[in-house]
Design brief:
Elements lengths: L3 E3 L10 H10 L10 H18 L6 E5 L2 H12 L4 E5 L2 H12 L5 E4 L19 E5 L1 E2 L4 E2 L2 H5 L8 E5 L16 E5 L11 E5 L1 H11 L10 H8 L10 H17 L1 H21 L4 E2 L11 E5 L5 H9 L2 E5 L8 E5 L6 H10 L1
Helix pairs in contact: 1-8, 2-8, 3-4, 9-11
This protein binds pyridoxal-5'-phosphate (PLP).
Length: 353
């Protein structure tokens, strides 16, 4: 029986990944030097593929890190001297806030109950804030921040804006000119094995790192300055996850052929089918009530009487769905709606729900 993973990370592999892993082994990718020409070509190919797939301007820098969690730390280290401001509505946005605390900054947070989003334009952000941190898609609760709300933060021109799109990329269409630090890891929407993260850095954010570096430590090998020193040579400071950079490049080529517009449209169609199903269900309802806050890539539903029996019944049929997250574990299911999941897969899942 073939399992389909609707889990929000790690998740279903993108359809061509197994083929590319075999190809990588034939080409000895795990053994090549990360200082050699072959690796530089892979690096260059993946970065230019990313820029073209996601429409990242040439002014922006693209670096590889090892995880989304690491990216939170790098963002704070490189761009905050003292004050960050965090919109918190679940476990991942809280992790971002805690990272700033652990790095001995003075973060502030605006927190709302689980399942809710933010009326961003009505929230007062202190004048002295250096960086505003947003989890565009809160994977623990299935709440999204609409991109227009993110762009409205442009009214604070002196502040930097960081955006966690770990569980919404490549679906979410970001105007990179309007945000400063954007990151995602690849085991979610790109349908790849875990162990690689991409961060996109604006000129303003890079300048901030440079300025900070003159005053205090901004970290060591993964400071933006160190990353940049190697990126200009199509390299990384450390021995990176070469296989993952290779696989990401291949999947991006496939996504480009399919067209990102089509992937985004299909994501919306599948999300509509799932929300429709739960909206009409007599007992099991979508957790997020407000339509504009409903994530298109992670659909969360309250399960009457607890989610465990349903998760186990689905598993026996080859449908692996996520449990709720943290305190909501027993009450909910979470369904990842990433590009690796087809419309047919969603139809089959709904039939069995
Ligand atoms: C999964 C996730 C992370 C953590 O990413 P890792 O690569 O597992 O460290 C961060 N933010 C969000 C929104 C996530 O969904």
């Amino acid at each position: 029986m073939r399992n389909i993973f609707f889990t929000p990370g790690p998740s279903q592999l993108y359809s061509t990944v197994k083929k590319y892993i075999r190809q990588a082994l034939r080409e000895d990718i795990p053994s090549i030097s990360h200082r050699g020409k072959k690796f530089q070509e892979i690096y260059e190919g993946t970065v230019s593929g990313l820029k073209s797939l996601l429409n990242i301007p040439d002014t922006h820098r693209v670096y590889f890190l090892s995880s989304g969690t690491e990216a939170m730390e790098r963002v704070i280290e490189n761009c905050v001297e003292t004050y960050s401001f965090h919109f918190v509505n679940g476990s991942f946005s809280k992790r971002f806030y805690k990272t700033a605390l652990e790095l001995r900054k003075k973060p502030q947070k605006y927190e709302v109950p689980l399942g809710e989003g933010f009326a961003i334009s009505e929230i007062t952000i202190p004048k002295y804030t250096e960086l505003i941190c947003l989890t565009q898609n809160e994977t623990s609760t299935g709440v999204q921040v609409p991109m227009d709300d993110v762009y409205a933060l442009k009214k604070h021109p002196t502040k930097l804006v960081a955006l966690d799109i770990v569980s919404s990329a490549p679906y979410v269409d970001v105007d990179y000119k309007k945000v400063d630090l954007v990151f995602f890891s690849v085991q979610k929407g790109f349908g790849l094995p875990a162990g690689l993260c991409v961060i996109i850095v604006s000129p303003k954010a890079f300048a901030k790192a440079k300025l900070l570096e003159e005053k205090r430590s901004i970290g060591s090998y993964h400071s933006f300055l160190s990353l940049e020193q190697y990126a200009v040579k199509n390299q990384t400071p450390e021995t990176p996850n070469v296989l993952a950079i290779y696989l990401l490049g291949k999947v991006i080529e496939d996504m480009k052929k399919l067209e990102i517009k089509k992937i985004r449209k299909e994501t919306e169609e599948k999300a509509r089918m799932l929300y429709d199903f739960f909206d009409k269900h007599p007992e099991n309802k979508p957790f997020v009530k407000e339509l504009t806050w409903r994530s298109r890539t992670v659909i969360v539903a309250d399960i009457d009487g607890g989610s465990k029996p349903l998760i186990e019944r689905l598993k026996k049929k080859g449908f692996v769905v996520g449990s709720g997250y943290g305190e909501l574990k027993e009450r909910q299911i979470r369904i990842a709606n990433f590009p690796a999941i087809s419309i047919q897969d969603v139809k089959k899942l709904i039939k069995n729900l």
